[in-house]
Specification:
Elements (H helix, E strand, L loop, with lengths): L1 H27 L8 E4 L3 E2 L7 H16 L5 E2 L2 H4 L9 H8 L3 E10 L2 E10 L5 E10 L3 H15 L4
Parallel strand pairs: 1-3, 1-4, 2-4
Antiparallel strand pairs: 4-5, 5-6
Helix pairs in contact: 2-5
């Protein structure tokens, strides 16, 4: 009899703990409103070579173009975001100025024939990073890498 009441008490406490944990997780990370617009900030060139800046700019434009293929998104043109490349403003501030729900930011590193792309999707209102991804490949593989990255970002965007 005593053993049964001990098991019932332990089961109750475990259930209570799980319930409290689930509640605290929902409170800490509420569901995000749908993302309907985004801006791709100029990818930072990590090569240290000024000649690679054009490569980073081209990567930014190509990624932006891939994301515009997602019909449910309004994507800001690269010309509207270029002047933010040297700014110290936060993603939240930039998104507010551009009137978008999220920002894609990241970096690109090219050495010889190898390309390394790192991207992050940031929710504007909360500053919370929703997704991050890293893509590596040869220079000739860049277009498929960009398409893969755009699809990954699209899959992480909360929609209605």
């Amino acid at each position: 009899m005593r053993r049964t009441s001990l098991l019932v008490t332990m089961s109750f406490l475990v259930g209570l703990g799980i319930g409290l944990f689930a509640r605290s997780t929902r409170t800490r990370y509420p569901a995000l409103p749908p993302i309907e617009s985004l801006a791709v900030l100029r990818l930072e060139s990590l090569s240290g070579d000024p000649k690679q800046d054009n490569f980073a700019e081209g990567m930014t434009e190509a990624l932006t173009t891939e994301l515009t293929k997602i019909s449910r998104l309004r994507v800001i043109s690269p010309q509207s975001t270029m002047h933010y490349s040297a700014t110290q403003e936060s993603a939240q501030q930039i998104a507010n100025e551009l009137k978008v729900d999220s920002i894609v930011e990241g970096s690109v590193f090219r050495v010889g024939n190898q390309v390394h792309i790192t991207l992050r999707l940031v929710h504007a209102a909360t500053g919370r990073q929703l997704w991050a991804g890293t893509y590596q490949g040869k220079l000739g593989e860049v277009p498929p890498l960009q398409s893969q990255a755009a699809r990954a970002i699209a899959n992480e965007i909360p929609t209605r």
